[in-house]
Amino acid sequence: MTAPVFLADRALLRTGTVVLGGPEGRHAVSVRRLRPGEEVVLTDGEGVGAYGSVIAAEGKDRLEVEVTEVREEPAPRPRLTVVQALPKGDRGELAVETMTETGVDAIVPWAASRAVTRWKGERAAKSLAKWRATAREAGKQARRLRFPEVGDLAATKDVASLLADADFAGVLHEEGAAPLATAVLPEAGHIVLVVGPEGGVSPEELELFAGAGAGALRLGPSVLRTSTAGTAAAAVLLARTGRWS
């Protein structure tokens, strides 16, 4: 089994003896019940990982680790961002979790016109915090050194600007003229893919996105839920760009 990953301050990512405390130390000692000799990885979630083994687990939240190696993982190419329309209930966290495990680099929550869910006021702050916490925990579970960025809630015009700046942009749509599986993709740069809400992307949004350079692409013969479409599409893109090779 691969070593568990824990989030740590950048200052701890160095060779020698370091002490992991706080919530991460508590999880390692009291939940995972790590013992001396077990291997662990500490990361800042931004590409740096410290590899070592436990030398002591004390109290409820103090883990001493002897770090023997520090590695910095380069940013993957091409970068993949998924713009995710707000799903109903807890399906947003499901989408974030599975896209993180798959390897998406950034997730942008989108207030699509046909989305049933609305983020406003205090609810918006809490929901965004949940998405970010989900990405963080899923990043650790997936043994990633780079956790995906979860952006602020985007309006449709913000999404159009993001698409216009991308090296490849597309919108998943069941009536898309071309399949995502055969689209010509860049070897580097930035790929941005839009996943619409359960009610679909509106004609006005499709027109705006097309003007920004994002054509409608179909994923396959079946229609996926908005909470799973991004993960399936990410798998296609990561495999085709060689990032899974």
TrEMBL record:
Primary location class: cytoplasm
EC number: 2.1.1.193
Location of this chain's protein in the cell: Cytoplasm
UniProt keyword terms in alphabetical order: Cytoplasm, Methyltransferase, rRNA processing, S-adenosyl-L-methionine, Transferase
SUPFAM superfamilies: alpha/beta knot, PUA domain-like
Transmembrane feature ranges: none
Stretches assigned to the Ribosomal RNA small subunit methyltransferase E PUA-like domain: 20-67
Domain of life: Bacteria
Enzyme class: transferase
Domain Ribosomal RNA small subunit methyltransferase E methyltransferase stretches: 77-237
Coiled-coil portions: none
Signal peptide (residue range): none
CDD domains for this protein: RsmE-like (cd18084)
InterPro entries in UniProt: Alpha/beta_knot_MTases, PUA-like_sf, RsmE, RsmE_MTase_dom, RsmE_PUA-like, tRNA_m1G_MTases_N
The keyword Protein transport is annotated on this UniProt entry: no
Catalytic activity: uridine(1498) in 16S rRNA + S-adenosyl-L-methionine = N(3)-methyluridine(1498) in 16S rRNA + S-adenosyl-L-homocysteine + H(+)
Family statement: Belongs to the RNA methyltransferase RsmE family.
Reported function: Specifically methylates the N3 position of the uracil ring of uridine 1498 (m3U1498) in 16S rRNA. Acts on the fully assembled 30S ribosomal subunit.
NCBIfam families per record: PRK11713.2-3, RsmE family RNA methyltransferase
Name of this chain's protein: Ribosomal RNA small subunit methyltransferase E
